[in-house]
Amino acid sequence: MLYAVVDIETTGGHASANGITEVAINIHDGNEVVERYSTLINPQIHIPIYITALTGIDNEMVKSAPTFADVALQIYQLLNDKVFVAHNVNFDYSFLKHHLAAAGYNLQCKKLCTVRMSRKIFPGKVSYSLGKLCSSLQIPLQSRHRAAGDADATSLLFNLLQLHDVDGVIFEMLKKTSKEQVLPPHLDKTAVTRLPNQPGVYYFKDNKGKIIYVGKAKDLKKRVISHFTGNKPNRQRQDFLKNIYNIDYVVCGTELMALILEANEIKRLWPENNRAMKRYEHKYDLCVFEGQNGYLRLAIDKHKTNSKPLQSFNNLLEGYNFLNHLINTYQLCAKLCYLQKAATKCTAHENGQCFGTCSGIETVAIYNKRLNAALEDIQNMQPSFALVDEGRKDEELSCLLVEKGKFYGMGYFTDKIYLDEGFEPVKENLSTYQSNSYILNLILSHAEQHPQKLYKL
């Protein structure tokens, strides 16, 4: 078996927007290096100053160097049919696979990561960066952060790893059934193997234990592994591979419960990599307040965090349509509901649909009584029900409770008898969660699709 021990230098941290500035490949026969190849590469984009400070490679050095397309065939021939070995292998592999694909070559290799091998064969090291690992193992490292120097040091490290691999770590990693090489370099395999094949929420953590990503899954193990399979060259994947050190999880009874828990956890924890859910907010709310003259007033306003609206809407038109319905049904004043300017004549009054409230003819008490009736009907229109489904184990049931149009909470119990005794016994078995229109719509949609799970309370 032949190995290709690889190191590259680049213009940045992810392949889709960055170029390669240097490549070194050492062909290793399992005992020693039998062939060496290295070259500077003109990335055809600007090399940032901070990269030059790290590697010493600047724009002038690569000006007359070949482009990647010029050397792609030679690189592909060196790597093809070899085991691809590198320190943090997914970084080097993702760059070379991406740029080889752009040149028309499909790289498919088995991979070995010397970071992951070192963690298993030399456990307990303070750091597994190439520089510090070589220092602790007394491996000479020349020309740090240059491809040839780092490839030579990685080749010597690979020799040492083979020499001390008394438990067959490398053999196990090379098995087709092993998922070892797709995992982030700092993530222990047991963090993935212990994951159950159940619905739930998972938490990616960095080296300080900080949660950097929250996700939901119908199958926790399959979903987590899917984050690491393939060799996507985008920034988010590379950040995952670089920063994930551990995984925690919570098992849920159903995928719907996992979705709801995920939404609440993202709002609570605000992880740096959960961009899409952070942006989700309903845009407009129906609010009620008392004006200076004592009249209760309704208004459609932009959504505010921690507000408790009567109703929420995805857009302004939806909100205005609902408010107009209230005005027509309960003879409310369009001016007091901010649907007409104060200086204009009240069209509702002219049409006989307003009792002169906006001009002071109708008293506060009479108008507010009618508006309170509208508010009471809004509350009564809101559904109250429980969704009962599978639990986390055979003898358990899960429950999600909606009370007067608001998501109350969710939890587990073992007997449906709780549902025969009203809200309070059910609530005692539930954990409360924040309600919003996103979560409520998920529940309402699920209830509509699965009416057999619905219990009206």
From TrEMBL:
An example molecular function term from Gene Ontology annotations: exonuclease activity
CDD domains: DEDDh, GIY-YIG_UvrC_Cho
InterPro entries on file: DnaQ (IPR006054), GIY-YIG_endonuc (IPR000305), GIY-YIG_endonuc_sf (IPR035901), GIY-YIG_UvrC_Cho (IPR047296), Ribonucl_H (IPR013520), RNaseH-like_sf (IPR012337), RNaseH_sf (IPR036397)
Superkingdom assignment: Bacteria
Domain GIY-YIG stretches: 197-275
Transmembrane segments: none
Swiss-Prot/TrEMBL keywords: Exonuclease, Hydrolase, Nuclease
Protein name: Exonuclease domain-containing protein
Annotated organism of origin: Pedobacter lithocola
